[in-house]
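Forwarding the complex inputs:
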Amino acid sequence: MEGLKITGLVVDYGTFKLDSIDLNLKKGCITGLVGRNGCGKSTLIKTIMRQQDAVAGQILYNGKKFAENEVEVLNSIACVFDAPHFNIMAKPKRIYSLYKSIYKKFDSELYEKLMKKFKLPDNLRIGKYSFGMQKKYCLILALCQRPEILILDEPTSGIDPFDRNEVVGLIQEYMLDENNTVLFSTHITEDLDKIADYIVIMENGKITLDEEKNALTGNYRIVQCADINDEMRSNAIGIKKGMFGYTFLTKNKNVTGSGMQVKIPTIEEIFVHMLGENGTYSGGNQNLSYKELQNRGGL
Amino acid sequence: MHIVISYESGIPIYEQIKSQIRGEILSGKLAEGAMLPSIRMLAKELRIGIITAKRAYDDLCAEGFLYSVQGKGLFVSKINKQKADSFAVNEIRAKIKEVAAFAELNSVDVKIIKEIINEILGE
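Prediction (whole assembly, two chains):
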């Protein structure tokens, strides 16, 4: 089963490059996208949504070329961007009628239901909504398009734990339909520990890891120990030395020793140790000027 | 059906689900022929991944505790007493092996394990 297939995608800003991205979003599954600020997650999402031109590569949706079937494809994909991309001075009613006129499948009933569920006032300008309310409103608009692919850029950051739980619930409710697919970019890896099926890690415009979550957590162990020997060192990923001992990630599942704590890693631990490895990560946003950041839509 | 998931136990989530559903079947709480929630419903209700839910169900089907009917869903298989007993014995054996490994790691004598077992079971 094929959802969205990206091959050899290159986006070049001059100072920053998405470097031949190959990514396959499996239909019926949730893929979690993790990476540091400035690693290219949002650029990738913007390119998928055709808000950013690619230099090379192609995106296939159900085997069809994205670029040649733009209207059809964009009717099947909905995205929640990192910030609202409509006039926030408007009231929900206006945004609603705008969306209803654009998207053929827009579900008014679901819209009413979700607006009530999240207690979003209809008579307030979106700009007057709190940050969390704006996020939820954007998610509601995306879900009401009844998309087959839902792309989420940080849908749970900046909202309170109660609402976050509800947002995750909404995403899972959406996944009850096995034809639906989700790409979920987030820094809150705890959400991915729970509901993701596949994990993709990006570093400096490249995908450095793409694995099924259970395989990932099943194949790695996080080890805490007082002392480390050469044999352990040769299998260790991202060794961190602290006042009370060492912590590292390893693919050696049978690692044992006295006084050693071995446990299944969380996505956060995998992420932190993998990126800490030999300093493969170099910079991100820190090396870019204000102007370059603006060009990339990072500001 | 009652299922509890712990992220701190160190046991993979699908294993936790498997053993709990198996427990309900072996204890008779889930009767033969009872229908289970769909993979996606299980995932949603337990806040877990779809593949994780599928893995748990697939394994239970492979072990013969569940069977699937195309287009209808998953159901509890007929479990005979012999199978249930042999399963429990195997589980206990695995657990005692774990204890033995733990004892070896901490250089505890095998005799002590036997003593503890006798003490608990009131030999």
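The two ends of chain B are 36 Å apart (CA to CA).
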